[in-house]
Amino acid sequence: MRKIIVFLVLLVSVPVIFSCGYQLPKALEVHGTADFRFSAKKDIGDTFADMVPDIGSEYQLIKCINTVTRTYIIRGELLEESYVLEDNIPNVDLNFPIEEDKVIGERDLTISVNFDSVLSGFSLKPVIASVFIYGDSDNQRLIDILAVKIDIEPTNDEHDEYKKEYTRINKSRSGITDSLNNNNECSLTSLPGLSNAFIVLPLSKDDIKIDFKVYVPEGSTINPTWFGGKIFTEILVWVPLEFVAGENEDDDEDNVTRITIPPGLLFSEGQDLFGRSSSEAANPVGDYIESLELSIMLNQNPFEDRNLIIWSGPDSDYKNRNIEIHNMLKGKAFSFPIDEERMAEINNPDKYPFVPNFRIEYEPGEELKIPWEIKSTEFVFKAKIKYRTEF
Q: Which of its termini does the chain have fewer beta carbons within 10 Å around, N or C?
């Protein structure tokens, strides 16, 4: 590239010099900017591919492919059986008051989302769930009075606020199976059901056990003839990958809430960015580039207005970094500038190799929503050139 630049400058300048009667110069200094663009298609979203709700085999996990944010629906059945009254309630067509809650079925769901490998200091936002109860027409009067109560483990002050009784639930089918394609993926963009019947649940990277109980509330009146047929109960949990930044007080590294981009995702893992094979090797780029900016253009940028840190050091420990670059991300560009001072550091043999590592920092309270698609579309290289050659 250096030869091309010099050749182009000479090609233009020498005829002008001769035509004006000037003497040939003893040196030539070139200033300018260069802008190169390359197609660079890569799925950056693979970074978050492992962030899938872990629910075991008893429930069904469904991808909601039409949502912008990565979203899953957890579907399960709380009960599907006939019920027998206690011996002390005669099986006659008479109404009886219920003096205490009568549980007719229950089931628990243990759920977690593993995100520690990429996110540090974040917590998952609470999610919503919806219960649907339906059955034979003979059971409709019983279905009309059924309610759901929630219990959560582990027990702590944070989880206690979610332990509630819900008397307003959906008395119909969810219809979710009608929206599934052949890959068992869902086309819905919101949770089915009445908005004022949603159940709010906590979510965590650690296991949370949620116990659902379907019951006849205390004070209700029942009739033995209402029992005997099938009653079906669906539970749907809407799980978008939405996070909130915290204080990260338990972190051993630096107590900063951050996303860590895996090594090798954007550039070759473990290799010097400028292709040097050793600390003594020449850096041809550094010979004629004063500063540069590298940008990876994305189809969408969920990290906009966040602080990107590019760092390099002798090993993979952030504490041992010897080069650090900051840039506030704007628009769809995942970019970082290397000014003259940083270029000098990169060219310093004591700081070889320059292997960029990436982290994106968040302030407490800021939110992160993970989309289904984060793809690179273009690689942009902008350089400020200053080159001098002697004749």
A: C
